[in-house]
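Q: Structure tokens for this one, please.
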Amino acid sequence: MDNANNSESAKIIGFHGTDAKSCKNILRKGGNFYISNREDEWAGTGVYFFIEETGYQMQAYENAYNWSKKVKKVEPNNVRVIQANMSIDSNRIFDLRKREAKKLFHTYRNLAHKKLSESAQNENRDIKKTKGNGRVIDCKTINKICAKLKFQAVIVQQYINFTKYDYDNCYNYPSSIPNCSVLSLRNQTYITDKKEVKKEDVNNGL
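A: Here is the predicted structure, written as tokens:
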């Protein structure tokens, strides 16, 4: 991938769902977002935002709101959504919606899996066949690519089961078809502005 230094800055609006206390801490002077750094993150280590293309900002807002309310189980009157405006060098974004980025990812991932398999074979141990292991390999692969090629943001399309707790008598099964776009920001200095927003504040024309 072309990672030259002459790229333009991409203006991105992201929405981050949280609770009232965390929102206050993030927005205070000198406050920062919490960095997600589990070994199975969707898009590697970073601060997570929901994003959408221009004209569909409301969907990103609603995804952030529902993430907090329905997935993290924050009480409705305690849910807060923060809008972050970001300006990121285009060549510092690892956009996994694009064919070239996907090809690079799978090249690295196949090497990582080969190394894992060889290590297990040398140590005479089995590798558990679980979805969790796949997510861990994905996350490690993304982190390695970002470290090597100096990417500061990662974009992935993801399926999030926002309604899995909506039905008492029937589990809502996850889908293989993505329903949202997620951005993981590795460097918060790319945030130019941040503020709490409500649904009526979101302008789909942004």
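A few notes: The chain is about 30% helix and 25% strand. The CA atoms of residues 130 and 146 lie 25 Å apart.
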